[in-house]
């Protein structure tokens, strides 16, 4: 049996939330029936490229999308579809920018064109954008997103989202869309006391209260606020350390801030790691003060591991699958976060596997569901 091939569209296949989500699905579908290929918009190789190719996927590279003048991109994409004309399903994960590849997919009469919402930002309005963002480039990006956001429905046959908040943000308040859960291999993240002891010992933090964060060092993830939280809680209790997993363009800025605040020695900058399900075991409290998100897969993983979680109240409460997560404001300074940390007292971790499964965030059922969807669409 020759598998059907689904074209997944991303910026790059690095270790971001949406990328990690689709890789969870890719690992668990029956690849004798459904195979993924990837259309990306960066020339350099990324973290998941080797694994994709090992599983039989093909990675195609396009130029970056220039939303102001996409003619070069459209030309390259038309050339691609002229020579790769067997795809019946294109699944785009570019949020507002999905309108660009799906427009050409529609032109080439590809019957199933899926836009997928992965983030939920503040409402985009021209007045708010020009008033609130002093950086000209960032303001221009927001204005472009406002425009293309209004056109995305013209080129899609199916609208997907990681959650209700993300879907409403991209498609509109009264829009219909399908929620594809940011599912994980819950068993891999289940609390393991032996792993916790092993990794705390490896990093010599056995007697510490370990705060942790996983994510790229970008404006969205709000690491600067996270560093402020650590600095302020250390005033009351010197026994905290912070573990940061990930890399990104603002990493050096955060390192410099930590040094300036004289707390660099209380932080472990681990960079990109592949053994997240093991490393997460040594974290006691997951601190996640993002400015905006969709439905973060890392918070599902953290709950599966039984961690206590303090998360920004900008994040949808759909992600609350256990009692271990609480939502806090980022507009009132660090005080609510510091107080919440100090109130936790002695931290015990729960076995949450059953709760993740009950919430339908385990990958097995979810991968079967999307596989059946793709197979059905391919027959139309």
TrEMBL record:
SUPFAM superfamilies membership: UDP-Glycosyltransferase/glycogen phosphorylase
Gene3D superfamilies reported for this sequence: Glycogen Phosphorylase B (3.40.50.2000)
InterPro entries reported for this sequence: Glyco_trans_1, Glycosyltransferase_grp1
One Pfam family hit: Glycos_transf_1
Glycosyl transferase family domain span: 195-314
Coiled-coil segments on the chain, per record: none
PANTHER family (alphabetical): SULFOQUINOVOSYL TRANSFERASE SQD2
Protein name: Glycosyltransferase
């Amino acid at each position: 049996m020759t598998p059907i091939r689904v074209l997944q569209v991303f910026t790059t296949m690095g270790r971001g939330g949406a990328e990690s989500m689709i890789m969870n699905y890719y690992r668990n579908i029956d690849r004798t029936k459904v195979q993924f290929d990837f259309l990306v918009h960066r020339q350099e190789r990324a973290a998941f490229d080797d694994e994709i190719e090992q599983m039989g996927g093909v990675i195609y590279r396009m130029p970056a999308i220039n939303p102001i003048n996409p003619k070069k991109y459209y030309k390259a994409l038309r050339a691609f579809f002229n020579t790769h004309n067997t795809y019946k399903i294109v699944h785009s994960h570019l949020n507002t920018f999905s309108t660009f590849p799906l427009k050409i997919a529609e032109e080439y009469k590809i019957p199933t064109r899926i836009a997928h919402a992965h983030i939920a930002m503040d409402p985009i309005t021209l007045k708010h954008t020009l008033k609130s963002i002093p950086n000209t480039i960032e303001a221009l990006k927001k204005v472009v997103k406002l425009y293309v956001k209004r056109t995305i429905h013209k080129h899609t046959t199916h609208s997907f989202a990681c959650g209700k908040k993300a879907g409403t943000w991209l498609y509109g308040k009264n829009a219909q869309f399908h929620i594809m859960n940011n599912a994980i291999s819950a068993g891999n993240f289940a609390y393991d006391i032996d792993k916790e002891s092993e990794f705390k010992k490896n990093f010599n933090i056995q007697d510490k209260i370990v705060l942790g964060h996983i994510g790229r060092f970008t404006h969205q993830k709000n690491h600067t606020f996270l560093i402020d939280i650590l600095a302020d809680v250390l005033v009351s209790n010197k026994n905290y350390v912070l573990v940061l997993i990930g890399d990104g363009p603002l990493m050096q800025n955060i390192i410099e801030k930590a040094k300036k605040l004289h707390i660099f020695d209380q932080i472990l900058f681990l960079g990109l790691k592949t053994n997240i399900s093991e490393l997460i075991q040594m974290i006691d409290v997951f601190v996640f003060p993002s400015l905006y998100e969709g439905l973060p897969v890392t918070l599902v993983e953290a709950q599966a591991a039984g961690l206590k979680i303090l998360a920004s109240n900008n994040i949808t409460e759909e992600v609350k699958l256990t009692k271990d997560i609480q939502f806090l404001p980022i507009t009132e300074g660090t005080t609510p976060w510091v107080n919440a940390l100090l109130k936790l007292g002695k931290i015990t971790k729960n076995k949450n596997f059953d709760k993740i499964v009950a919430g339908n965030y385990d990958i097995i059922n979810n991968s079967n569901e999307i596989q059946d969807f793709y197979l059905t669409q391919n027959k139309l």
